[in-house]
Amino acid sequence: MRRSFLYPALMLALSLGSAAHAEFPRVGVADIPNGVSAPFDGFWAAGIPDANGADGVSPDACKNPIQLRANGDHGLVYAAPNRPEIVYELSEFSGRTTWLPIIGESTIAVWISADAFYAYAVGLTDGRARWDDPRLYRRCPE
């Protein structure tokens, strides 16, 4: 008797959980070029957006920002405070930019404006983008 109750309860919980995920964009705005470093060059604040629409970027994040530096036309250097720099090669694919490191997980960047983009990690073992768990980057004012 208990088992017959647990299965529907589990299915309901799983369906509610998946409905709580926000749908984040998978294709960038058309007027920002993909696969090139120039649009990324600058200082950025990052946060974890939530399903309710909050971007998760702290107002103080630009006091100690992440720096993205162009490294040629199709390369990028990611310099976060107190962390080693990461060098990426950039390529365009399906309306977005793929960041390919020498080692480690790649990242897919999707522009939502000239001053903001979502970054999705791509799993090393399965090659799948984590579309439901992006990081939001907002350009810091100069």
Verbal overview:
- 13% of the residues lie in helices and 35% in strands.
- By secondary structure, the chain is mainly beta.
- The protein has one domain.
Kindly report the average pLDDT value: 85
N-end to C-end Cα span: 64 Å
Q: Pairing-aware structural class of the strands and helices?
A: mainly beta
**Unreliable segments (pLDDT under 50, ≥5 consecutive)?**
1-20
The number of strands is 8
What gross morphology would you assign? globular
SS summary, helix count? 1
Biggest sheet statistics: 8 strands, antiparallel, barrel
Radius of gyration: 18 Å
Q: Strand-and-helix sequence, N→C?
A: HEEEEEEEE
Strand ordering within the main sheet: 1-2-3-4-5-6-7-8
Helix content: 10-25%
Beta-strand portion reads 35-45%
Task: Count structural domains.
Answer: 1
In short:
With 142 residues, the chain is mainly beta.
